[in-house]
Amino acid sequence: MSLRIIREECTYTNCYCEENVWHICNYVRENHPLLLHECYAVFISNENQTVPLWSQKTSNNHQGLVIWDYHVIFIHYGNKKCDVYDLDTKLAFPCSFDEYRAKALGSDETLQTQFHRSFRVIPADQYLASFASDRTHMIKDGKWLKSPPVYPPIFNATSRNNLYAFINMINNSDQEVPGQVLNHENFVLRFS
Fold it and tell me: Cβ contacts of residue 47 below 8 Å, gap of 6+?
């Protein structure tokens, strides 16, 4: 059974990648529930919240380089095939993991230490059950930095906002959010 997600049919709001990926996970839960266990939400960040990604649509340079504070992608890993769904990339949708690794992630070996990335890999069902954001991270001095999505914020039974816990790349077992934090090398090994 293959997963089919069409970019133009996805719920998308610029600069709200965590919610965009939550909606992709929800789409899979509703339309391909037997594949949900093969799907992951992946937060990319680091201690400095300076993570470079290439081939990004919002970039002004020919390489598509953007330094995000964090970014979130969706991964489907089934039948020995791994695809990345990134609504903010110029690359195909989906894009094979190996192509995404080469053209969007690059290698930490060529980066200064402050730009090394960590990856919180969260099973999609756990992400759907635990993620919450009241969107206050996008408000500064009482004004929106980027316009919010038109649909209501995503809450769960126990939280109205735990976004920063997902972005935090310290892998504490007592942390309130699920997922395993991997360095770049181990992330590539897991999905290549």
Answer: 169
Of the residues 17, 25, 39, 95, only one is catalytic, namely 17
- Measured CA to CA, the distance from residue 143 to residue 140 in angstroms comes to 5
* Structure confidence by residue, pLDDT tens digits, 30-48: 999 999 999 999 999 999 9
What HEC string does 22-45 produce? Answer: HHHHHHHHHHCHHHHHHEEEEEEE
Q: Supply the CATH number for residue 183's domain.
A: 3.10.620.10
CA within 13 Å, CB half, 177: 27
Q: Which range marks the domain in which residue 147 is found? A: 7-191
Q: Known catalytic residue: 17?
A: yes
For the question of residue 23 being annotated catalytic, the response is: no
Reduce the DSSP state of residue 191 to 3 states and report it. helix
